[in-house]
Known about the structure:
Layout lengths: L15 E14 L2 E8 L5 E6 L4 H7 L6 E11 L2 E9 L2 H8 L8 H10 L8 E12 L4 E6 L13 E6 L9 E10 L2 E12 L6 E2 L2 E2 L12
Parallel strand pairs: 3-5
Antiparallel strand pairs: 1-2, 1-4, 1-6, 2-3, 4-5, 6-7, 6-9, 7-8, 9-10, 11-12
Amino acid sequence: MRDHxxxxxxxxxxxxxxxxxxGIYRPESDDQLTxxxxxxxxGNELEAVVLGRMLTLMRRHLDMSTPHLWVVYPRxxxxxxxxxxxxxxxxxxxxxxxEASDAExxxxxxxxxxxxxxxxPEGDDFFSIRGELIFTKPEANELVVKVRQLPRADGxxxxxxxxxxxxxxxxxxxxxxxSLDVRRQGQILSVESVEVIAPMPTRGGKxxxxxxxxxxxxxPAKT
Length: 223
């Protein structure tokens, strides 16, 4: 079993937008489980949709009346409205029980370590956003990152999407590939740390600071 819900970066220009949010998922209705809201400990309601592969796990193994740490893909349809796609859950204790549903019992030591297994070193509401910085307004604490996605198995090519964040990043980094550690605060994604990776290559294959020969190519996100 993996030891972290967010996989390590394997390429310098690897796009992604993924994070974790702890909360109770409340569907729109019993007949519409795929759409609803995530309610966090402060009572904030975050619009959410459940991706298909999660439905079986939710129906069979999760207590939907209690909070869980959900693995999510963020989308920003409006500047002050966060939308989440629920792609997974980070709860090793529950997943281990689900995988061994025919086991006789859970021993005492496993029960005692359940809490620590289900915690992340970065804490709740952590997001990793990697992509091209296409807008920044330092005086207003605003920036936008564009994230590209890989083609799907059926050949469909999803359009890039934009993630709106609060944070300060100077204009000189526009059109650069950036890696951001982000924390959710209510409906807002707030930047905690920034790494500027490289200028984005132009259509002619050159970056802003010279030839792109031998340089890394951008790698779209898997989702």
